[in-house]
Design goal:
Length: about 130
């Protein structure tokens, strides 16, 4: 009977600890995959961008730094590239701008924003 209780106690303690370790490793891997832009961009600065009216240099100037460029397609007279910036949300946020022939034609934002508040013992977590 005591052996069974010891095993139950170990399981009750081990499962949450293993879950926490897996979560920490997952967050670490996600953070390492963020683009290495020279600045982080906020939702407020992203909302000031105008599709089909801004060039790539206009976007970089508005956001405060150059992003990480990745050319998707480069053919005669046609070039598609994606530029990525690190977002300001914790633990993970990426903003991508799609440029076609140097003009902004699309945007994509991926955010995982965790907020933990502990006033009065209450916890709140949100994912955006």
């Amino acid at each position: 009977m005591m052996r069974w209780l010891k095993m139950l106690l170990i399981a009750v303690v081990a499962i949450p600890v293993i879950g926490l370790v897996v979560a920490i490793i997952g967050l670490g891997v996600a953070r390492l995959s963020l683009p290495a832009s020279a600045c982080t961009v906020s939702e407020a600065s992203i909302s000031t961008l105008n599709l089909e009216k801004m060039t790539g240099s206009d976007v970089a100037a508005r956001l405060g730094c150059d992003g990480i460029h990745k050319v998707e397609l480069d053919s005669e007279g046609f070039r598609i590239e994606t530029v990525s910036w690190r977002g300001d949300a914790w633990p993970y946020s990426v903003f991508e701008a799609q440029l076609i022939n140097g003009v902004l034609h699309g945007t994509k934002t991926v955010r995982l924003d965790l907020n933990v508040n502990l006033p009065g013992g209450q916890r709140e977590a949100s994912a955006n």
